[in-house]
């Protein structure tokens, strides 16, 4: 699946993103983007879906919390997943370098986040190998809108850079089904980020989605956040269902 490029404001045309990326967004980026505090991360089981190649869940566990990562790419063997991570890092680096008005790129052409993303990918792959050797079950190969967990399994669910981000290929019904599923497996909050597509455009169907969720008793709040990667990704959606 290939996305088209388009204007994003600020002086340029965003290049096509191509196929859906498996990204290793690091722990600090998650905390900033989702507006997370240590207390929230340690309060109960956390689900990251889709998690990609992020070290987020591994870091939460290192802090003493409980966290599970879900992504369809985990169906690949470790070598296949390592190749996918490497290839997608090359692709996202080229994508970032192609839009210097949105991404911070140094004089040598290096995107300022690439070192942190590479370190996150390395930590993820090491933790994945340990977990599979121990059959720990912390990395689950599955995809929205169907997750293999009982109702209310997690206190906090975070879902980033799939919903809204790929609005050019995921239709409104998919978004609704995916959000319903994330709410089903949560007994606390679901947080979604960003509320823009990869071109930087606000998700056009957000109002309609929130109306349908409100009719089902879901409470929604949009919170301001600060993204270390793209300044325009400055809002996170927090959803809950009063018990």
What does the overall shape look like?
Answer: globular
Mean pLDDT: 91
- What's the name of the CATH homologous superfamily? Vaccinia Virus protein VP39
Strand content: 15-25%
InterPro entries: SAM-dependent_MTases_sf
Organism: Streptacidiphilus fuscans
Protein name: SAM-dependent methyltransferase
Concise overview:
This is SAM-dependent methyltransferase. With 243 residues, the protein is an alpha/beta fold. It contains seven helices and nine strands.
Descriptive report:
The structure is a single chain. The chain has one domain: Vaccinia Virus protein VP39 (Rossmann fold). Helix 4 (78-97) runs antiparallel to helix 5 (114-134). Mean pLDDT is 91; it is low at 1-9. The strands form two sheets. Strands 5-4-3-6-7-9-8 form a seven-stranded mixed sheet, sandwiched between helices. With 243 residues, it is of the alpha/beta class. The chain contains seven helices and nine strands; from the N terminus they run E-E-H-H-E-H-E-H-H-E-E-H-E-H-E-E.
């Amino acid at each position: 699946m290939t996305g088209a490029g388009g204007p994003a404001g600020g002086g340029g045309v965003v290049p096509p993103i191509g196929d859906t990326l498996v990204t290793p967004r690091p722990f600090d980026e998650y905390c900033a983007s989702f507006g997370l505090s240590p207390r929230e991360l340690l309060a109960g089981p956390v689900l990251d879906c889709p998690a990609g190649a992020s070290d987020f869940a591994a870091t939460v566990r290192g802090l003493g919390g409980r966290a599970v990562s879900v992504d369809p790419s985990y169906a690949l063997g470790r070598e296949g997943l390592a190749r996918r991570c490497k290839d997608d890092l090359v692709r996202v680096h080229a994508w970032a370098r192609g839009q210097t008005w949105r991404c911070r790129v140094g004089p040598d052409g290096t995107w300022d986040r690439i070192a942190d993303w590479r370190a996150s990918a390395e930590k993820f792959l090491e933790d994945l190998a340990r977990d599979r050797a121990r059959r720990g079950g912390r990395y689950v190969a599955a995809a929205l809108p169907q997750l293999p967990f009982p109702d209310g399994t997690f206190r906090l669910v975070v879902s980033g850079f799939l919903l809204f981000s790929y609005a050019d290929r995921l239709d409104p019904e998919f978004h609704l089904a995916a959000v319903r599923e994330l709410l089903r497996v949560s007994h606390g909050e679901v947080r979604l980020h960003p509320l823009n597509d990869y071109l930087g455009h606000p998700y056009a169907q957000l109002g309609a989605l929130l109306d349908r969720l409100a009719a089902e008793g879901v409470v929604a709040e949009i919170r301001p956040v600060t993204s270390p990667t793209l300044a325009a990704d400055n809002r996170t959606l927090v959803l809950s269902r009063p018990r």
